[in-house]
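EI: anyone free to look at a 367-residue chain?
SC: sure, send it
EI:
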Amino acid sequence: MIIGIDGNEANTPLRVGVGQYAFNLITALYQHRSHHTFHLYLKSPPLPDLPPATSNWQYHLIGPSSLWTKIALPFHLFTDGLHLDLFYSPSHYSPHFSPFPTIPTIHDLGYLQSQDQFNKKDIYQLVNWTKHSLKHARQIIAVSQFTKDDLIKTYHLAPNKISLVYNGVQNPPQITSDQTKTVLSKFSINQPYFLALGTLKPNKNYPFLINAFSTYLKNHSSTHLLVIAGKKGWLFNDIFRSVQEEKMESNVIFTDYISETEKWALLANALSLVIPSTYEGFGIPAIESQAVGTPVIASNIPAISEILQQSALFINPYQPSTLVQALTQIQQPTTRKHLIALGHQQSTKFTWDQSAIDLLKAFDKIK
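SC: here you go
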């Protein structure tokens, strides 16, 4: 097959969320390219860590970058002379017009439930461009059964039009003790800590986490830290306000964006990863945490419970007392040993190699 891919989400130096997804999946597809030819379309030159170009893996730099999926990319697809079998987008947005079958990836539909958590421009684009991509798609990729079910219910799509392709997790790199010391020192982490990992935005429910952590500290006279690792997204002022109101400035550490090395070092040395989200489409950090032997506390919401099953402590993201209890329970030796064993087993079920294999099976449905 001759496959076109929107490579822009992967072609950014500060990859989070969809960017990490796109980079890891594209890298895994590169390993399976022998029977296919791939053409990756970009707004800017490919970064050095993207797979190198070969005879069956080629990059196309096109512009202008403004309204790229609506104007530049469609124009190029109609005029460049290539006859693609399909065009795949690792994000919600397929080219606005395409002479070839399109396949977008839907990570979640949370924005439809919480439109007030986005600015007007972003929510307009999410709602309308996603709807357009779905309307014209030949196949659709969903990253969890929860997301697939949500698509069927919301857009009245035929189940056979949606292929389930779970996210993966890369093999954790070896982090040396010197690297760990450097990371912990950089962020002034000098006490045992709980870790929250993800962009600062409303669905992450960080004010809830901060308030519950404050109660935990008061109940236990603890000196533990809460480390929140992620760059600023949007509507994040309530997060910082919560720290001030709880007088937690010395107990809560914000790292801003972190590198891959920093991420793995923080995950491996945390007491627990805490995911208090009110909505997720998958939850890659949970599986990454389990892969390095760190147990997980997570909200009992559909996508997270689907992915983690019985391998985590689950909380109600609207009842702080459930998180306070979990923060205590996760430190009990028998609980930790049990969850670490279950977590390791669960993490082996999700690899980017398997994601690439499943994605190629979805491509075959276009034939």
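EI: Residues 120-136 form the longest helix (17 residues).
SC: 👍
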